[in-house]
Amino acid sequence: MQNIHKNVAALPLAISLALLSHSAVAQHSENTAQQQNIERISVVGAATNFAVTADDIEKIQANDLSDIFRLEPSVTVGGGGLGITQLVYIRGFEDTMLNVTVDGAPQTGTLFHHIGRLAIEPELLKSVEVQAGAGEATAGSGAIGGAIRFQTKDANDLLNKDQRFGGILKIGGGSNDFYKYSASAYGRINDNWSLLASHVKVDSDSYKDGDGNEIAYEFTDATGKTVRKATDTEQELNFIKLSAEFEHGQYLSLSYETREEEGSFPSKPNFPISASNPIFPIETERSTTVFNYGIQQGSLLNLAVTLYDTEQSLLVKGNRAWHPYQGQITTRGGDIRNTLDLAAHSLTVGVEYRDQRSSAGTLGQALSAEETGKVLGIYAQNHWDISETLLLSFGLRYDDYSLNTTHKFYAENQANFAAVAAQYPQVAEAGFFLVADFDTLTPVGRVAGPDGSFSYLSRSSEDIKVSSDGLSANLGLAWQLTPAWQLTAGYAQALRGKEVGDTFTIDYNGVEPGIEAEEAENTEVGLQYNQHGLMFKIAAYQSTLDNAMNLEVGGTNVRNIGDIESNGVELKLGYQKDELRMVASYVHNNSELHNYQPNVATNAFDANGAAIVNLAAYSADFNAFNIAKIQAPALVNGQPLIYDGIKLEGYEQRAIGNSRGDTFSLDVSYSVLENLEVGWFFTHVQALDGIVALHNVVSSGDVSEVVTLRKPGYSLHDFYASYDVNDNIRLRLMVKNAFDKAYRDHSSFADYSEIWEGFASHKEPGRDVRLSLSWQF
Hints:
Blueprint: H1 2-10, H2 22-35, E1 50-53, H3 54-59, H4 65-68, E2 75-78, E3 87-90, E4 93-94, E5 99-102, E6 105-106, E7 125-132, E8 146-152, H5 155-158, E9 165-174, E10 178-188, E11 193-204, E12 216-220, E13 226-230, E14 233-246, E15 250-266, E16 279-297, E17 301-316, E18 325-342, E19 345-362, E20 369-385, E21 390-407, E22 412-416, H6 417-423, H7 425-430, E23 432-436, E24 443-448, E25 453-457, E26 462-480, E27 485-496, E28 510-511, E29 518-531, E30 534-550, E31 557-577, E32 580-594, E33 599-602, E34 604-605, E35 611-612, E36 630-633, E37 635-636, E38 639-640, E39 646-647, E40 663-673, E41 676-685, E42 688-693, H8 695-699, E43 707-711, E44 714-724, E45 729-736, E46 768-776
């Protein structure tokens, strides 16, 4: 009955069969089998799961997230070439919808919604596993769009069997102003204990896109002098990992990582640089401590324990559009699971808990806003070998979410009738306006013109508590039809309550008290063939997300905005013979928002038809509105205005998803000599039309009509060469965007220039020739 487990274990690695050499596949299969002793490979979602190995990462000289996932077109990265802005998408869903872990520690929380929340150093990665869509109960809390699991190396991954100590020195650079240095030392302290320490530094100057335009900003100061500010950045990472192996299958590791990035970026780093979005110093820092323990003894004890503590911070300096800003996120928690091998059943039961705190405010002052969130998850997942060729998987998960928010504002301001009437003609026509209570939106006083004036105070505090809980089930099967053909199918549910918001928006936005938990469903089926060096796979899926949460453009509170539906097909064809390896992939995804009723800022009227204008809730020091309109659902002739079938767009549906054209990729590599390999990556993204946008902005009256956007198609060519001078010295050459294509990645937000001049995400870097030299001793 173990044959089917071996086949299922290979499912996430299907693409690797045509990417890696026979020896590498054998080695990775052995490692995967060992890892299964702690956690069984997911069956639900197996048709589209995949893995990226350390060899893949090194081969393409991965420097950031876009490099890591270059080999897999179903995972895309947008945001431009500034690493701090990069966002990951799977099946159209942004990484905020995924459960992302590093050695089991969740990477949750966003410092700023214009900044990517994932920051990982490819140098340290042993493997990356991706589960697309809601999956098995073991995927973790909040995995409504899938999961990404990063696993870091330890000393034993780098040492030979007869080696006690070693190290790696590496230097590299790129023609598009990129330099990287790293040093690692590792060794066995004794027969049980080993230690790995690594230091990585990256210096990047402003890159140039395919048009030769530098991502920088020039302006004329008050003296008439031309001033140039560049988007330079420095990244520094320090990592240390102590690990040990004992008898009875015991494994222990304790790691500590600090990652710092500082540079000059636009206030909204993924937006075009302009006078309204100037460059200022921005600093981010993250420190993570992870403890892992595992023990395997007999069929009833296969225990895995993970404990973690992560602290993140962001500082934005300078007189930015809002205010000099700081944000902090602290995440603590753990996961305990045990796998029982009971004859034909392999049952995993576990519990996880996460406690998170997000706070924000003006730089140099006490933090004025705070959100604290907790989640408790209890789960069970069973893999049942019904026969030698049929495996059934089923599981159940319970999650309990709670969130507390506190927002404090203390701004006292002066207002008078003439100033209000000059901005709002309906106030002048009415001859008066009413002061409305910010929380209840009920009138509390009348101010008459023309000389009436008064003082008003912003809301002094707001405390909201929301909670949600529920069960999620899954069912999947893997059926080995023949030695070459395998059929997989799965259905899974996942639930996510409101978690802490990003540290910028909680500074001035709240949460709807009645917000409901997001509920995801994922159904997929796959068929694959693997024999005689030929691999074929086809998978189709439908993922839905009810009660999607979002903070709309111009909105005041996070609320349920509607339902998401994501449908798609993935095809893959691979061939390997002797020294030649080829993999062709095609990905189609359509992600749409349904049942969307804009909740817009609108002018309200009292019982007599006179205009009511709600006074500002925000300090004038924030450069915010002097008058805050009342939030209300958009209506047409008294009926709710509801939109259906809106393609997701990364600007308006930020923190939810994005749309991109059909993607075709080709990966070809050839071993010219035993120690020389060359390769070619080709990617073509088809143009995407019919992105209708700005529904919310139209409903609020800020623009007159919706706009239909188009994302132009593009083709990219990357080349690489890998040469092992000897067993210790390696040379890697990578030419990215070899033909200097000027393009905007479809996973970045679209070009809105016809509405707002110059309003578009950054274009990707142009040609970049990278060369690295490493010495391992």
